[in-house]
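Retro notes (design track)

What went well: tokenization of the new backbones is finally stable.
What didn't: we kept losing track of which sequence belonged to which structure.
Fix going forward: every design gets posted as structure first, then sequence, in one message. First example under the new rule, 164 residues:
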């Protein structure tokens, strides 16, 4: 059987335990998972593309079939470059659905071979978002349940630099 590479795209600004849960589960299903750090034109970022990717690389060390990459362009172009037609997305609550559905259909319109697979987030992580984490760090709230330690340190540094 042909080996299956899945692309897990996102902003990951920063990566949370919710994202990592999806990565861990996707890595058990697909032969190879590429976490692709991208730009969402609707968002303002705290971390650069490279900074976001470096933090994720540290977190996914234990998973031997997971790679991390960055791409500043269309997701379908990236998937074509990687010779993959599989996109994995995490779905939190009802809030995500409309937006994710629209993106999946747009990607399908751009490349009919693309298939988007939605994975339902673990109930434990269903309400976590990167923006919620940023708000908590700004207001000195406890974030250790939501983000890995290296990410917490990087966010603390951004806070000390006055970026948050
Ligand atoms: O974590 P996010 O912000 O919800 O991820 C959205 C992301 C980055 C996956 C999306 O904006 C994207 O695919 N950006 C790359 C540019 C692109 O292909 N845009 C068209 C998507 S329909």
């Amino acid at each position: 059987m042909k080996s299956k590479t899945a692309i897990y795209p996102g902003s990951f600004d920063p990566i949370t335990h919710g994202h990592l849960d999806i990565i861990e589960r996707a890595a058990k299903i697909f032969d190879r998972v590429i976490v692709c750090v991208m730009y969402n034109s609707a968002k303002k970022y705290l971390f650069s593309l490279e900074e976001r990717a470096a933090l994720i690389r540290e977190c996914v060390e234990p998973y031997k079939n997971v790679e991390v990459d960055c791409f500043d362009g269309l997701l379908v172009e990236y998937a074509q470059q990687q010779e993959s037609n599989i996109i994995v997305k995490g779905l939190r609550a009802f809030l995500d659905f409309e937006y994710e559905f629209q993106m999946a259909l747009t990607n399908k319109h751009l490349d009919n071979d693309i298939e988007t697979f939605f994975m339902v987030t673990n109930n434990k992580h269903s309400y976590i978002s990167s923006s919620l984490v940023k708000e908590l760090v700004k207001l000195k709230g406890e974030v250790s349940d939501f983000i890995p330690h290296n990410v917490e340190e990087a966010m603390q540094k951004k806070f000390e630099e006055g970026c948050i």
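Added context from the reviewer: Residues 9-11, 38-40, 43, 74-75, 103, 106-107 surround 4'-phosphopantetheine (CB under 6 Å).
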